[in-house]
Design goal:
621 residues; five-stranded antiparallel β-sheet; 46% helix; alpha+beta; two-stranded parallel ribbon; 3 domains
Amino acid sequence: MKMPAVRHQRGDMVMGRWPGSSLYYEVKVLGFDAKSSLYTVIYKDGTELELREQDIKNASDFLIRSRSHSRSPGRRRSRSRSRSRSRSPARTTRRSPSRKVAAVAAAALTDGPPSSRRDTRLKDSLEVRLSPLKQTKAAENNEQEKKEENNTVNEKSEATVEAEPGKSQGRYNLRRRKITGDAKPVEAKPEQLEEEDANLAAAPAASPTTPLDFGGKIGAYFWLLFLPAWVLFLVLQVNQEDPSLTSFPPPLPPLEAFWDTQAFGFVILWILLQVLLYVLPVGKLSEGMPLRSGERLKYRTNGFFAITVSSLVAVAAVHQGVDLTYIHSHFLQLTVASFLISVLLSVYLYVRSRYAATEQLALGGSSGNVVYDFFKGHELNPRIKGFDLKFFCEMRPGLIGWCLINFAMALAEMKQQKLDAPSYSMILVNLFQLLYVVDGLWNEEAILTTMDLMHDGFGFMLAFGDLVWVPSTYTLQAYYLVSHPNPLSLPAVAAIIALKLVGFYIFRKSNSEKNAFRRNPSDPKLSHLKTIPTATGKSLLVSGWWGVVRHPNYLGDLLMALAWSLPCGFSHLLPWYYMIYFIILLVHRDARDMSECRRKYGSAWEEYCRTVRYRIIPRVY
């Protein structure tokens, strides 16, 4: 089979069309997919898209085409008229070299992608940007300028001009019309551009940052204080005899009760065990998504192997007489030890990021503010000789530790309640959450396309979340049941299991349908699915699971979270913490997805939202 010719090579700087518009921007080619005949490119703000060949032009061809149009025979270019045009108010400049304007599109194409709001308004139009110009001798030329403006071409065929301070764009002239009210830009036709000089200004450097989130710099201070305090509150509250909110705040134990050297050593040993299992040459070497440099990192995706060995180690330890109920009785000290390790790791990550190359930094964690960058993560993929710190912490110590803690809580319930076997409630919580973790580790490769791995830097936010938040708060149901049993009848057990299976089915089937479509949209098995094409070359699913709601996988996740909380009953709100937190998390994530997709797909995304009206819950939200 003859492979399609590759016109643009990896590393080439070309002009790429922005989806849903006629705007072209300077992009770098990261690669070419022969199966889909799509080029992967990256814009200067870090946005990565897949474009068809017809949406990519050579920068030199673009400039030549612009110049040839500006010199067309139909364009009268008498020297005297060129001078007089430069004096009109619409031109805003005279012949003086210090006041010439860059008006060709090629000079504006390096400014970066437009906002999603502007993208929908500028569909099929070409934007021309100008720097604000100094105006001198305006009064003496005013009368002649008014006469010249009356001789310009019809307003409807003229280019709109948007002033942007501080951007030198070159030395070109063009006609323009005044923008009043909500006037919409119209397409700037090549014959409207008159070349006055062949020199172009250098392209401005792309901004190394993205808009700040989580409350910006002030928010970083808040979250650094709030997150540890909130975890401490939950751990202390759930251990009370009456964990209701009426007993808030929980009494603080003496300071010495927060620290235990043996607990710190236990956490260190657990992390070292997971490091050993991670570096063993077992399992698949998976390739990550292209970075801004075009590089693809390799990851050892052997998480299922790691949790299998960890389970065998835990069972062997219990068989040898090791008392794992120590985890329950020293849960506060273990949490504090994990917090200390996460802080030390975060400090190390920030210090080493100060010496990292620019292309290795995370756009979202390069604000220049020390506290914000420390919190959000300054370096994107910190590695120690191929050992990826972020990927390891995301999937190993905390996630597998979650299952170990649940197992220890089941043993503690048997010991404290004097039971021969764990209660139905404890068994359900353990099995449901174990299934969730095992499924994630079995499909570990899927995390390589998530926002955490692709865009977020590795700093305190992720380090604390991976090492403290997950093992200390996701285990609250099991911790709660140790001292607050909730007997369940067999019909109740059957109903909760059915709910869990329905949620898991929706979660897995919807994700499988999405992944299959991404791998091969032309698969005959998927021919029944309806799609909406986009300017990026990709299509949006509007049938199957993804035609019911925009995030059917989130719906499955919520049903599973509900099944985790029901075994704890309704006596207290605390064991429902995960359900409440998860709703907030998914709604926030949905909002971020909406913003990103609207920017990425433009008008196609608006059509998708009109077709699939509900976000997560059918006919509700």
